[in-house]
Specification:
Length: 282
């Protein structure tokens, strides 16, 4: 159903597109969105979900943002998520799993969907793990990134992140969480196991993308809720120290999901960033 007030927003039902990845044929769930005033030359925002997220779990935020920013949108579920090809039971990710999503899955998905980021650089909007992927893509392909919006990003591993993920393993928490997530994923258990296993792996504690972030030259909005249980303000302050083009947005009464807790403030900040980049007055 189209949200109230968004009846004119053009969008396509979610569909699947095949890509070749890790020697396999994988189907990715995706959806196109377009504001009424948007055309092929309008900015394209690619939405990259969190570590337990999916296309559907964004709910109506992508539609609302595209309408407000007068742009196009592309929402994708990564392999193993949503209605994309599920992970096999027992799948384990390596410490470079986020890098591989940014430099292998994303380019393959864009090519399969006919998106030429060389001709028209992309706006990358990522949440949590998706924000890390957005940063890594912008660092690996600077000419293809018009801007980055990083919601609750991870550029290094914090103890509070690990502790919060460890708490999800408790049976009283895990069972209802997986029951809720099962509404949004074809195979929730393999996805949850792969995600939590790598984040709780002691070897992953050394993971950091500080060196890669120095290559990012596009406008960047780094957003953190003041009540985020999965990360501290150092996640966005560290980005600002490395990337001179960073704007910071610290949101009160906001946890790990700014697009759910403070959608209006977030949308206003994103529109300001995008308009400023196009030469308008913020």
């Amino acid at each position: 159903m189209i949200p109230a007030g968004q009846a004119a927003l053009a969008f396509h039902a979610a569909a699947l597109v095949p890509i070749d990845w890790q020697g396999q044929r994988v189907a990715l769930e995706y959806q196109w969105l377009r504001a009424p005033a948007a055309d092929a030359a309008s900015p394209l925002v690619v939405f990259l979900h969190e570590g337990l997220g999916s296309l559907a779990m964004w709910k109506d935020f992508p539609q609302q943002l595209c309408a407000a920013a007068r742009c196009r949108g592309l929402v994708v579920s990564r392999p193993g998520y949503g209605h994309s090809t599920p992970l096999a039971a027992g799948t384990r990710w390596e410490a470079d799993f986020l890098e591989r999503q940014a430099t292998e899955v994303m380019p393959a998905a864009l090519a399969a969907l006919g998106v030429d980021a060389h001709a028209q650089p992309l706006w990358l909007l990522g949440h949590s793990d998706g924000a890390s992927i957005a940063l890594l893509f912008a660092a690996a392909y600077p000419a293809q990134a018009a801007g980055v919006v990083a919601l609750a990003p991870h550029w290094f591993v914090e103890e509070q992140t690990v502790a919060s993920i460890a708490a999800l393993q408790q049976p009283a928490v895990r069972a209802p969480l997986l029951a809720r997530l099962a509404r949004f994923h074809q195979a929730v258990e393999p996805m949850f196991e792969a995600w939590s296993h790598i984040w709780l792996d002691p070897a992953f504690r050394r993971w950091s993308i500080a060196d890669r972030m120095r290559r990012i030259g596009c406008p960047l909005l780094a957003v953190q809720g003041l009540d985020d249980e999965y990360g501290s303000l150092e996640q966005i302050h560290g980005i600002a120290r490395v990337c001179s083009s960073t704007r910071l947005l610290e949101l009160a009464d906001c946890g790990h999901s700014p697009h759910r807790d403070q959608p209006q403030a977030l949308t206003a900040a994103i529109c300001s960033l995008m308009n400023h980049n196009e030469g308008d007055t913020p």
